[in-house]
Design brief:
Largest interface: A-B, 116 and 91 residues
Distance between the termini of chain A: 55 Å
Number of helices of chain B: 14
CATH superfamily of chain B: 2-enoyl-CoA Hydratase, Chain A, domain 1
CATH superfamily of the largest domain in chain A: 2-enoyl-CoA Hydratase, Chain A, domain 1
CATH class of the largest domain in chain A: Alpha Beta
Shape of chain B: globular
CATH topology of the largest domain in chain A: 2-enoyl-CoA Hydratase, Chain A, domain 1
CATH architecture of the largest domain in chain A: Alpha-Beta Complex
CATH topology of chain B: 2-enoyl-CoA Hydratase, Chain A, domain 1
Helix content of chain A: 25-40%
Order of helices and strands of chain A: EEHHEEHEEHEHEHEEHHEHH
Order of helices and strands of chain B: HHHEEEHHEHHEHEEHHHEHHEH
CATH architecture of chain B: Alpha-Beta Complex
Number of strands of chain A: 11
Structural class of chain B: alpha/beta
Radius of gyration of chain A: 20 Å
Number of domains of chain B: 1
Strand content of chain B: 15-25%
Distance between the termini of chain B: 32 Å
Shape of chain A: globular
Radius of gyration of chain B: 24 Å
CATH class of chain B: Alpha Beta
Oligomer: heterodimer
Number of strands of chain B: 9
Largest sheet of chain B: 8 strands, mixed
């Protein structure tokens, strides 16, 4: 139930940012506590706010089941990249702002008691961009999923490859896809969840390649920036271009799932995708090699 | 096909030469930014030899195959079979046009999804027939338009990259001109990656990088330098294994000599790779890409993200009761919502 205020009261100090958030979609002023209770979905228009990695893990996994791996991976500066700010400074600022070491967190956890390997990206960390650390975490998660025959879930939120790491960031597409291909060969399921935004190199690697692809409503999902597309080609963009529903109608997303239903749907899917425990035990490990 | 190439060689090439700005000479002692930008211009040179031109010199019995069997044929990517120095190989390469008419036909060398799907079809065929694959990379980027997105350009690129990481046949990749981001990598995952001297390889176009990080595309030369996109830099980073020198004025000045030099390197690599058992080859390729990228592992554990409990019924009740005491997580990503999303425009 949204609290409505008359327009004349919207002075800057009337809604301190620590308490209130303006919905960018319907412009409603939302009380932060209320927003948090609603899983960061606007109660009046259904706008899905971006989630930090810890919040996302909290929403998807059984309470207390998450066990983080490789949290000590940090970016280095292979190119000595400086734009208006040096790359290491940008990383340090992002670490301070998010409390994370890089734009992805991976570990093992449970969804309704089903064990999974999970990677969650955080857009708040340099636009969720994929550098060597993100690529490494996705690859390690996939390799762990393969070794233990656990389903892999990746929740993407990213502007694409991290420009500051140059082609080494581009190579993370190959690194992650190489690991995922082995997972696929071994018959271990992979569910990709795309949240706002999932674009560029992340969409053009693991995010697009789930055995099942889920997307949150109205998330920006696309390969090339809309500006580039329109600028270079000079074409009108179709309505809803590069949104979840656009991807759905063109056959690249299995289901558009509201955040409130995500955990339940994921749990249901895993019941079909994961072999029953007895089967898993009966299957010799050697079968997964190669 | 050779006839067609020769025909184009006369008229169109002369036309292109007239319209072309003077090629900047590379002065290795100049401002490093200017040197880098001169290389980018060389890599984009209209008269730079493309896949078909190179093949017409270095290969015999070239036969081009068409279509992805799903949607259509994309002429921005050419694929087929060829014999290079006695090796029967499958070839996949990007093909820019040399005049406006051809460029329109070939989408200015920017492949659509069907181009990459054709490439995958030919590579899978090569795997079944036991033919090595040779790829030639020269692309500003994958086609960024709506129809490209509608048909799943990202899926096509991801699938192609994935296929190449596990393809059970040797793959030799040559960056001949522009290695433009995912559109390049989609056909550039190889056991060995060669690059011509004035080729460039980058995660995003220098113009795109500049417009995001410097807020103006005028800073493209600065961005090009910062991304270290020259073939030599890429070799230093381990992304490229070997740089093949071009003739003194650049590849466009002597396409024949360029093709001969490339042929020597490609044949040598094909000889070498054909001696490696397939299992070892695929494992090596996996290791090659698995190890690319630099990071550190710090001993001190990261600030472990506190996982807030899932708001079940009990939790919601507790939340209501304790609402006053609980701190609101300060850096909710909502505050950053105002700034435009950082996009990788490829």
């Amino acid at each position: 139930m949204p609290v409505k205020f008359p327009q004349f009261r919207s002075r800057r100090d009337a809604f301190p940012e620590s308490l209130w958030t303006r919905c960018p979609s319907c412009e409603e002023q939302l009380f932060n506590k209320q927003l948090e209770k609603a899983m960061n979905v606007c109660p009046s228009c259904g706008h899905h706010f971006r989630l930090s990695a810890p919040l996302r893990l909290g929403q998807l996994l059984d309470e207390g089941s998450f066990e983080e791996h490789d949290s000590g991976l940090v970016s280095v500066d292979p190119l000595g990249f400086v734009d208006q700010k040096a790359y290491p400074d940008r990383v340090a600022a992002a670490q301070l702002a998010t409390g994370l070491n890089d734009a992805a967190v991976w570990g093992l956890g449970r969804v309704d008691a089903t064990r999974i390997a999970i990677v969650v990206m955080d857009f708040g960390f340099m636009g969720g961009s994929m550098g060597a650390v993100v690529g490494e975490k996705v690859a390690r998660a996939a390799e762990a999923a393969l070794a233990e025959r656990l389903p892999l879930v990746v929740v993407s939120a990213s502007g694409g490859a991290r420009m500051q790491e140059g082609t080494l960031a581009l190579m993370q597409l190959a690194k992650t896809m190489a690991a995922l291909e082995r997972l696929r060969d071994a018959g271990v399921p992979f569910v990709s969840v795309m949240s706002d935004p999932t674009t560029g190199g992340v969409f053009a690697s693991y995010a697009a390649m789930g055995d099942v692809n889920l997307a949150e409503p109205n998330a920006l999902i696309g390969f090339a920036g809309a500006r580039v597309g329109a600028g270079t080609i000079g074409q009108e963009l179709p309505p809803g271009f590069q949104r979840s529903e656009f991807l759905y109608s063109h056959g690249f997303v299995d289901r558009v799932v509201a955040r409130a239903d995500l955990r339940r749907e994921l749990s249901l899917l895993l019941r079909y995708l994961v072999p029953r425990p007895l089967d898993a035990l009966a299957r010799p490990l050697e079968a997964s090699v190669g | 096909m050779v006839d067609r190439l020769l025909r184009r060689g006369d008229g169109a090439r002369a036309e292109a030469a007239e319209a072309e700005p003077v090629v900047p000479a590379i002065n290795p002692d100049g401002d490093p930014k200017d040197v880098m930008w001169a290389r980018v211009q060389l890599a984009r040179n209209l008269r730079r030899p493309r896949t078909l031109e190179l093949l017409s010199v270095m290969a015999d019995d070239v036969i081009e195959l068409h279509g992805d069997r799903l949607f259509g044929d994309d002429e921005a990517i050419v694929a087929g079979f060829a014999t290079i120095g006695g090796h029967r190989v499958a070839v996949v390469g990007q093909q820019k046009g040399q005049d406006t008419e051809e460029n329109v036909r070939r989408s200015f060398g920017m492949p659509h999804p069907e181009g990459y799907r054709k490439a995958m079809r030919i590579m899978e065929l090569a795997e079944r027939c036991g033919l090595p694959v040779v790829t030639f990379v020269d692309v500003p980027g994958a086609h960024p338009g709506p129809e490209s997105e509608e048909r799943g350009i990202a899926e096509a690129i991801a699938r192609s990259v994935g296929l190449m990481t596990r393809l059970r046949t040797p793959i030799v990749t040559v960056i001949t001109g522009e290695g433009g981001s995912g559109g390049a990598l989609a056909i550039a995952v190889g056991d060995v990656v060669l690059a011509l001297e004035n080729a460039v390889y980058s995660v995003i176009s220098p113009e795109g990088c500049a417009s995001i990080l410097w807020r103006t595309s005028d800073e493209a030369p600065t961005a090009a330098l910062a991304m270290r996109m020259s073939a030599q830099d890429q070799q230093a980073l381990g992304v490229v294994d070997e740089v093949i020198p071009e003739p003194p004025q650049g590849a466009h000045a002597d396409p024949e000599e360029t093709a001969q030099r490339l042929k020597t390197a490609i044949v040598r690599e094909l000889d070498r790779l054909s001696g490696i058992p397939l299992d070892a080859l695929v494992e090596q390729r996996y290791r090659r890409y698995r190890s690319l990228g630099a990071f550190e592992e710090i001993a001190a554990p990261a600030p472990t993200p506190t996982v807030p409990p899932r708001p079940g019924l009990a939790e919601r009740l507790r939340g209501l009761i304790e609402a006053g005491q609980r701190a609101i997580p300060a850096p909710l990503p909502v505050g950053r919502r105002q700034e435009p999303p950082a996009r990788e425009d490829v």
